[in-house]
Design goal:
The complex is a heterodimer of chains A (about 325) and B (about 290). Chain A has helices at about 10-30, 50-60, 85-90, 105-115, 150-165, 170-200, 215-220, 240-250, 265-275, 305-319, and strands at about 45-50, 65-70, 95-100, 120, 135, 140, 205-210, 225-230, 255-260, 285-290. Chain A has about 325 residues and is α/β, with parallel strands linked by helices. In chain A, helix 2 links the parallel strand 1 (about 45-50) and strand 2 (about 65-70). Chain B has one domain (about 1-290): ABC transporter involved in vitamin B12 uptake, BtuC, CATH 1.10.3470. Chain B has 14 helices and no strands. In chain B, helix 1 (about 1-25) packs antiparallel against helix 10, helix 1 (about 1-25) packs across helix 11 (about 205-220) and helix 11 (about 205-220) packs parallel to helix 13 (about 255-270). Classes of the chains: A alpha/beta (about 325), B mainly alpha (about 290). Chains A and B meet through helix 1, helix 3, helix 4, strand 5 and strand 6 of A and helix 1, helix 5, helix 6, helix 7 and helix 8 of B.
Chain lengths: ~325, ~290
């Protein structure tokens, strides 16, 4: 047989041997690795998946906790990829808070598994089933964007408070006090949103965005929501979605549509362009924060700042 | 913790490294990428039938579609379609069916491969499974270990047949080897390995490990057995170096492992004693020198 390669004896045995040797080498090299450190100075080390949760944990935990959010400003949780450092952060955490309801995708499965040897808590866990929006096709799959209804986030705050008290009862009084103060602020924000959105004339109260994240917002504050994309930012929009939305804009004389900080603006621009061709001018009302907050240190970098920003932008453009 | 990540990476590298050699020789390297897309309709159908995004249902749907994919690719190829074209046709068409199914049935559900099927190697050590009373071993290591065992068994038993089928199917047929059967067997192994690995470690690592180490090994030797050996060693090296590079740069672990593989490929391309650019340049210089 005159092929380029020739048959030689026992290549597999040699292969297996090499694999075993290499495996042993890896095992030896990894044995000496040290455990991740606990939080500094006896503080609780808290890791949150999204910034909105991290912000609440910081507000409630105050000086007794250090909080790290895995997904920073502008990161879309549907498309988040963990880095080696993120894994270490999770490993070193005393408590992990996450949204749940599949917002973090397959990571939710992992976080549930981790709960056997670490405190991992879904902040959505106390929100009653009836409050959750779901797809008629799949009643078990809920819309995860619960934070757009501030009242849901008040429940999340309570979950975080109770978890902190349980983990660190020595500072229970502080956690209770901090949570109380923060809940008051949330209540004010909730009232503010309802009052402001209520000022938009009924017929203009239609919120058009690129991705379907604002249904809780719409239901809580009585504004109709239209999205171009599905719930997931990874799902594709069809040409019919674009033309449907365009016709809707023209028909309802909608003045402005909104772009989002963590989603590409291309799709929504196609709709605006289409409406223009039909003689209806739509403007971009501004940038809403949906799946991620603004930069740390800015007003929009906090949960309350983000909600107020969204409300103000919407009211300004539609009123 | 890092131990299990590296072991998982090395297991993926070994399984993919072995199969990858046969795929490179058959010019079907991109089959891993094809499967990573074409399983979408399987996911959607599994979701429609079970009504949940439970990982077992998703894995089942993906496995079935993985087998359908390789079966169709092999079938088309045997009916005379070019290997690359049949891979292209099958995966784009199936993926498109998946996109259509999502838009028809699951518009309001977050149902994409990244969220429901593809795992992440950074998390493997938290997803442990107890088998035969052995605790603390990640599920990914069990699954990949069993897969690797199956590969060793099948390739080991029929090494000569697989080899002849890869190089010279006409000759193999003349020798009385059921070539089609072995092609389907190989494709079945590839499908099983990729889908199981997708679930454990994500797509990029599997697709990369299936192609790059084997292509690198191809530059370094003329013998299949040595090529497989190199391919596996290169793959494992990538897993180890990639992990530490990811730790150093605080980057994605799977991404870094494949990046290292890419770098090693470039090194081999330049410095390979037989096929390397450097050697070829030296030879040409010498030739020119002789003529002058």
């Amino acid at each position: 047989m005159q092929t380029k390669f020739s048959v030689k004896k026992a290549p597999l045995r040699r292969l297996i041997m090499m694999v075993v040797v290499l495996g042993a080498a890896i095992a030896l090299s990894a044995c000496g690795s040290n455990e991740a450190k606990k939080g500094t100075e006896g503080k609780l080390n808290i890791v949150a998946t999204i910034g909105m949760i991290g912000d609440v944990a910081e507000q409630v935990g105050g000086d007794h906790v250090t909080v790290t959010s895995l997904m920073g400003p502008g990161v879309d949780p549907h498309l988040y990829k963990a880095s080696q450092g993120d894994m270490k952060k999770l490993d070193g955490a005393d408590i992990v808070f996450y949204n749940g309801l599949h917002l973090e995708g397959k990571m939710v499965d992992i976080l549930e598994k981790m709960s056997s040897h670490k405190t991992t808590v879904a902040v959505s866990k106390t929100i009653p089933e009836a409050e959750l929006l779901s797809d008629p096709v799949a009643p078990d799959s809920h819309d995860p964007h619960i934070w757009f209804n501030v009242q849901n986030w008040m429940k999340a705050t309570e979950v975080i408070r109770d978890t902190l008290i349980e983990a660190d009862s020595a500072h229970a009084e502080d956690y209770r006090k901090n949570a109380e103060a923060f809940l008051t602020q949330l209540k004010e924000t909730d009232d503010y949103a309802r009052e402001q959105i209520g000022q938009i004339p009924e017929e203009h109260r239609i919120l058009v965005t690129a991705h379907d994240a604002f249904h809780y917002f719409g239901r809580a504050y009585n504004i109709q929501v239209m999205g171009l994309q599905g719930i997931s930012t990874a799902s594709e929009y069809g040409s019919k979605d674009v033309s449907d939305l365009r016709d809707y804009l023209v028909e309802h004389h909608i003045k402005a549509v909104f772009v989002e900080s963590s989603v590409s603006t291309k799709a929504i621009e196609a709709v605006i362009e289409g409406a223009k061709k039909m003689g209806h001018t739509v403007e971009i009302g501004g940038e809403l924060f949906s799946d991620a907050m603004g930069k740390a240190g800015t007003t929009e970098g906090t949960y309350i700042g983000m909600v107020r920003h969204n409300v103000d932008i919407i009211v300004k453009a539609l009123k | 913790m890092e131990f299990w990540i590296i072991v998982t990476g090395a297991l993926v590298a070994t399984a993919c490294g072995i199969l990858g050699c046969f795929l490179v020789l058959r010019r079907m390297s991109l089959i891993g990428d094809a499967i990573s897309h074409s399983v979408l309709p399987g996911i959607v159908i599994a979701f429609m039938m079970s009504g949940s995004r439970d990982s077992l249902a998703m894995l089942l749907g993906a496995s079935v579609l993985g087998l359908v994919t390789v079966f169709l690719i092999q079938l088309f190829q045997q009916s005379g379609v070019q290997a690359d074209a049949s891979i292209g046709v099958v995966f784009t068409a199936l993926f498109a069916v998946g996109v259509v199914l999502v838009s028809l049935n699951a518009r309001q559900v977050d149902l994409d491969l990244d969220c429901v099927l593809f795992g992440e190697i950074a998390y493997v050590h938290w997803n442990t499974m107890s088998v035969f009373g052995i605790d603390g071993v990640p599920k990914a290591v069990w699954i990949l270990g069993i897969t690797l065992l199956a590969i060793f068994l099948v390739i080991g038993l029929f090494y000569k047949q697989f080899k002849l089928c890869a190089f010279d199917p006409a000759m193999a047929l003349a020798c009385g080897i059921p070539v089609a059967l072995f092609h389907y067997l190989l494709m079945g192994l590839v499908s099983m390995t990729t889908v199981a690995s997708f679930e454990s470690v994500g797509a990029i690592l599997v697709v990369g490990m299936l192609i790059v180490p084997a292509a690198t090994a191809y530059l370094l030797t003329e013998r299949l057995s040595i090529m497989i050996l190199y391919s596996v060693l290169i793959g494992i090296t990538c897993a180890v170096l990639g992990y530490y590079a990811a730790a150093w740069l605080d980057a994605s672990i799977a991404g870094m492992m494949v990046t290292v593989a890419g770098l090693l490929f470039v090194v081999a391309l330049i410095f390979s004693p037989s096929h390397g650019l450097l050697m070829r340049w030296v030879k040409r210089r010498r030739l020119v020198g002789v003529e002058a």
